[in-house]
């Protein structure tokens, strides 16, 4: 039975994974970087685990966009994502965040995902 990728809607045969509602968006990540440069803000204060908007004067438009983007990339559920989208998302993760979340290797049995 053919499945459809939740992100690009192309047919795929890959197994389901836990993934965000949307992939990392290149244009949004660039917008965050540009906003930080334009407003002389450290990106870590605006975006990420350690961000703090308390002392930032954000305009309403960027604040609304960041809130929606954050919600969509932080909402994780089980879905079908094609290999191409998974690879692109990983590439963008490495480009914009340049970190590995996993300090140690882990293994899983693909049969546990079915």
Please characterize this protein's 3D structure.
The chain is built from four helices and four strands; from the N terminus they run βββαααβα. With 114 residues, it is an alpha+beta fold. The strands form two sheets. A two-stranded antiparallel ribbon has the order 1-2. The radius of gyration is 17 Å and the shape is elongated. The mean pLDDT is 87.
Features:
elongated, alpha+beta, two-stranded antiparallel sheet, single chain, 4 helices, 114 residues, two-stranded antiparallel ribbon
Question: Helicity, in percent?
Answer: 40-55%
| N-to-C series of helices and strands | EEEHHHEH
Coarse morphology: elongated
β-sheet strand percentage: 5-15%
End-to-end separation: 14 Å
Radius of gyration: 17 Å
Tally of DSSP helical segments: 4
Return residue spans where pLDDT drops below 50 for at least 5 consecutive residues: none
Strand order of the largest sheet: 1-2
Count of structural domains: 1
Q: Quickly give the structural class.
A: alpha+beta
Mean pLDDT across the residues is 87
Largest sheet: 2 strands, antiparallel
Number of distinct beta strands: 4
């Amino acid at each position: 039975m053919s499945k459809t990728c939740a992100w690009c809607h192309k047919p795929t045969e890959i197994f389901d994974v836990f993934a965000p509602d949307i992939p990392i968006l290149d244009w949004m990540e660039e917008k965050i970087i540009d906003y930080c440069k334009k407003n002389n803000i450290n990106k870590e204060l605006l975006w990420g685990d350690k961000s703090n908007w308390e002392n930032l004067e954000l305009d309403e438009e960027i604040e609304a966009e960041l809130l929606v983007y954050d919600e969509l990339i932080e909402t994780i559920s089980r879905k079908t994502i094609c290999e191409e989208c998974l690879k692109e998302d990983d590439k963008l993760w490495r480009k914009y965040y340049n970190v590995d979340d996993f300090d140690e290797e882990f293994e899983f049995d693909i049969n546990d995902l079915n």
